[in-house]
Design a protein that fits this description.
It contains 18 helices and no strands. With about 475 residues, the protein is mostly helical. About 85% of the residues lie in helices and about 0% in strands. Helix 1 packs antiparallel against helix 11, helix 7 runs antiparallel to helix 8 (about 165-185) and helix 11 (about 245-270) packs antiparallel against helix 12 (about 275-315). The chain has helices at about 1-35, 35-45, 45-50, 60-70, 75-110, 110-135, 140-165, 165-185, 200-235, 235-240, 245-270, 275-315, 320-345, 350-370, 375-400, 405-430, 435-455, 455-470. The model has no long low-confidence stretch (mean pLDDT about 85).
Amino acid sequence: MNNSFNKNISSLVFSTIFCAILSFLLGVLSRRFLLPEEYGLWMSVSLIFLYGPLSHLGVINSINILLPRYISNMEDINIAKILFHARKVLIYNTIVITSIAIISLLFTKNNLIFLSIIYVVIQNYYLYYAAYYSASNNFVTVSKIQTYNSIMSFIISIVLIDLLNVYSLILGLILSNLICIYLYRRKYITKSKDLVFSIRYFKILINIGLPLLLTSITWTFFTTIDRLFIINYMSLEELGFYSIPIFMFQTLMLIPQAYSRVLYTRFNSLYFHKEKRLVLLKEVISSSNVITYIILLIFGLAYLNLPFFTELIFPNYMEGVNAGRTILIGIVFLSMIWVFIVGLNSLEKQKYVLLFTIIGILISILLNFTFIEGGITGIALATSLTGIIFFIMLSSYFFIVLKTPIFLIIRYYLKSLVTIGTFYFITIKLSDFENIFLNSIIYILLLITSVILFEFRVVKELIKSRRNYAK
């Protein structure tokens, strides 16, 4: 089982890193072809499919909760039942969303909006198959198809961008997802004979999955408030400049999200038992420390190289550099929070995660109104401060739920804040010097030295916990 876990996490992490690189390159190359105003239009329209998963009412999310338990208990009937109902919901969902897309086209005459709504249907099917394989602990297949998806989307978008401009981006997503759905179905085996759609069972799935979906959508709202403020109070061109910090956020957050997907299946199958909660506490803290150092490495390199890179590759977007640098510190804390979210979900505290996210949204709105006079840099500052506050709130609640001794809580926060603060200070100081290559090397060496000196025990405990898991 240990080998299986390591294979799953390594394949998914490497796949995610590869996808992040392709996403990074697509963002770079698309900005070479699109003006800030055109890219701002893409940023605004993409909100449609960011909120699209609301349409399945959490049924796909219920697969992630229930299927691992059904599989571990070999409950074949329940496995078939949940997958049957999820597919039926997707069929009804397709009819409704397609109707909305046609109506929108008739009234707005906007092909980009029409295609974005149609993509929501395709995206839901893709998410269904990804959830099935993830819940089945088959992350190798998920990783392969995720990689294929990114490659195909990248190729299609770049080949068509000179001819179709912003339309190439949505067509790349649609076509690549359709191909991946076909690849998923080739390996998809399920029995659903003699099953009848039950409203009662459908409600059960909604009751289980909807809180998770609302948490996810609320998280999406939480992380797109800055974009919504710019859409409402600034211009599409400024939104285009702000695509630099959005770009940084989306790329860096892929790593903790991928790691948390593997941890979710692991935690959910083991740690809902009370006697395992002490193990959960140790693993969450250890995993949080691992994520911190990974993100700190990327944070420092991104902060030091962003101005040079932006001026070299897409000089039209230089006005977004300060905002991009400002949002990076918030990304560090938001990356750490994913492990705590997974831990709370495994303890069936989804509703409290949702509650704290809503509180985070209110704080974000207040801070965005406070700093909006600072333009897109002010918006980025509000986003970073919100990330720090949200991290402290949610992680504190996690420690309270597990009745963690106060000295352990204080030690964790002091260690995290001192580590992040120290490397933030180092990054600021290094950025004053012009030799970018030398600055990056110094930063990497300091980070590695810190891991060797202070985190050897943490890494050792993490390896030990993996071995215990295998037993």
